[in-house]
Amino acid sequence: MNAFAQTLIVPPHICYVVLDGEWQILDHSPPVAFGHWLDSDIPLQASDIRDHFPELFGCEEIFSDILAGNLPLFTLNGMTRTTASGENFYLDLHLQAAPDSLGKEQSTLLILFIEDVTEKMRLEQVLVQSTNEANLLLNALTASKQYIDRIVTAIADALIVTTPHQIIKTVNEATEKLFGYRQEELIGQSLSLLILDAEPLFQELFDSIQNHGELSRNLEVVCQHQSGVKLTVAFSCSLIHTEAQGENDHHLIPDIVYIGRDVTERQRTQQRLAAQYAIARILSEANTLEAATHQILQAIGENLDWDVGELWLPSTAAERKSAIPLGDDMIWQKSGEPCPMPIPKLQRVDFWVESSPTAAFYDFLQATEQIAFPEGVGFAGRVWGAGLPEWITTIHHDPDFGPHCFARQANLCTALGFPLQSGREMLGVMTFFRREQLPPDQNLLQMLAATGNQLGQFMKRKEAEVALQEQQVKTEELLLNILPQPIAERLKVDTTTIADSFEEVTVLFADLVGFTQLAATLPPIAIVEQLNVIFSRFDALTAQYGLEKIKTIGDAYMVVGGLPTPREDHAEAIANLALEMQEVIQQLNGDRREPFALRIGINTGSVVAGVIGTSKFSYDLWGDTVNMASRMESQGLPGRIQVTPNTYDRLKAAYYLTPRGVIPIKGKGEMTTYWLDGYC
Question: Are 160 and 173 in contact (CB under 8 A)?
Answer without folding.
Answer: no
